[in-house]
Amino acid sequence: MKSIITKVITLAALTLSMNVSAASAIDALSAESIKATLTPEQIQQSLNQWKERELKQLESRAQNISDRAPIEARRELVKSQIEQEYKQTAKALGL
Questions:
Q1: Contacts of 75 (CB under 8 A, 6+ apart)
Q2: Under a CB-based contact definition with an 8 Å cutoff, are residues 93 and 34 in contact?
Q3: pTM for this prediction
Q4: Of 41, 54, 55, residue with least CA distance to 94
């Protein structure tokens, strides 16, 4: 019985790691495609527009987070998440 459970857990972990690897490869290809087709200025402008749209939705995103935390903390969390994603995307796109 333990060996079956171990095999199932191992198979699930392997599947998840393969999905992460595939997603990373797709992300890398997408970033390369974007860099090849757009100028750095266009990339920066699009990224800034994305960030602006996300920040406009900050309140609704904060409201969707568990209400156990104060709303101010939820707003800061969402803002931090947006900033982090912005920085990671900018770095991936070579900005």
A1: 58, 59, 62
A2: yes
A3: 0.61
A4: 41
CA–CA dist 90, 84 (Å, integer): 10
SS (H, E, C) the chain: CHHHHHHHHHHHHHHHHHHHHHHHHHHHHHHHHHHHHCCHHHHHHHHHHHHHHHHHCHHHHHHHCCCCCCHHHHHHHHHHHHHHHHHHHHHHCCC
pLDDT in tens, 28-54: 557 777 777 878 888 888 888 888 888
Is 44 buried (19+), middle (13-18) or exposed (0-12) by CB count in 10 A? Answer: middle
